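Friendly challenge for the regulars: who can give me the structure tokens for this chain first? No prize, just bragging rights.
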Amino acid sequence: MTKLPLVGNDKVGSGIGRQFGKDLMASRIVAAAAEKMGHAARRQALSITDAAADRIRHLLQQRQRSFLKLGVKARGCNGLSYTLNYADEKGKFDEMIEDKGVKILIDPKALMHVIGTKMDFVDDKLRSEFVFINPNSKGQCGCGESFMTTASTGAAKQG
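First reply, four minutes later:
Bragging rights claimed.
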């Protein structure tokens, strides 16, 4: 541990200097701990199930692409719809999620609508599709194609 120099001498002003030194040392310790924790301290914006990871891995290998990019688009009865596209590189403001060996990019405009969402893949006799379990969803249309969040309803009122 490095000892910080204190301001002042032993007789006058040393209390202020010691306090400053303690505050500075505490902030350095907190900064070092935060740096070590890095992104692990942040909750991931999106989690994926094993079935979704397997399907994404298959699609990326089949198309020889690096990423799958999740976005939202204004459409449908309830305002927003999920979009999935292939991407070769990460955009400047894209959020990258690495989970279960796959990399997913999240469009910055979609991030606030999908935080905490779980992505699954369902493959049965009736359908073969990605399913999004979104805690931010405040409603969706009957067919399940579109959804709305508190953020999207506020934006609609302003527009």
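Confidence is low (pLDDT under 50) at residues 2-13, 154-159. The beta strands are 46-48, 67-74, 80-87, 95-99, 102-106, 117-123, 128-133, 137-140, 147-149. Your move, everyone else.
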